[in-house]
């Protein structure tokens, strides 16, 4: 997008890419453990934020983070850590809280605006996780939106999943476009009208 500085944070390392769904799940798994999520993953994602924030041509009051699936979990965690992002957007992301974190009621309010774009046919995100996330956000007094797209599955933004053989996973063009527009509308609260790509 014109006028934006973009950085894609690669937590796996140069050249490390899952060549199948199974390989991708194996790559992701270590970062979601109790030991690594609040240490290794946090360190890598906050390092990316710190780098962008250090750039002289970046307005550090208007930094956003977006993530898809596992990346959605990562950006939600950044909001939970209160690292002063303006807003985060999670597309079909994991909603589980940080393991062994303090009770939300005892933590400071979240100061980052949050947008969740979720498919109502996403069987990979249990309804219990949705309800627990809602409770967590209320307890943290967050400024958040949760948009559910009808018939959309996990991975609804990914065209290559149009003919996915996996249950609960698939592309949905309508949900993909609507969720992107919702993201641009959120960004516009900080930077004015944003051109559609």
TrEMBL record:
Pfam families reported in the protein's UniProt record: DLH (PF01738)
SUPFAM superfamilies registered for this protein in UniProt: alpha/beta-Hydrolases (SSF53474)
Limits of the Dienelactone hydrolase domain: 2-190
InterPro entries: AB_hydrolase_fold, Dienelactn_hydro, FrsA_esterase
GO molecular function terms listed in the Swiss-Prot or TrEMBL record: hydrolase activity
Domain of life: Eukaryota
Protein name per UniProt: Dienelactone hydrolase domain-containing protein
């Amino acid at each position: 997008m014109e006028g934006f500085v973009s950085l894609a944070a690669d937590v796996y390392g140069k050249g490390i890419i899952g060549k199948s769904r199974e390989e991708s799940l194996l790559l992701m798994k270590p970062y979601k453990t109790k030991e690594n999520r609040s240490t290794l993953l946090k360190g890598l994602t906050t390092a990316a934020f710190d780098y962008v924030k250090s750039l002289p041509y970046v307005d550090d009051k208007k930094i956003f983070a977006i993530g898809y699936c596992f990346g959605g979990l990562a950006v939600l965690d950044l909001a939970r850590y209160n690292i002063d992002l303006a807003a985060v957007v999670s597309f079909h992301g994991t909603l589980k809280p940080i393991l062994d974190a303090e009770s939300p009621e005892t933590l400071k309010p979240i100061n980052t605006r949050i947008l969740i774009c979720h498919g109502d046919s996403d069987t990979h995100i249990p309804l219990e996780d949705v309800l627990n996330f809602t409770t967590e956000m209320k307890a943290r007094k967050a400024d958040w939106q949760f948009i559910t797209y009808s018939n959309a599955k996990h991975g609804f933004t990914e065209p290559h999943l149009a003919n996915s053989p996996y249950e609960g996973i698939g592309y949905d063009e309508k949900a993909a476009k609507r969720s992107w527009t919702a993201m641009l509308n959120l960004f516009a609260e900080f930077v004015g009208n944003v051109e559609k790509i």
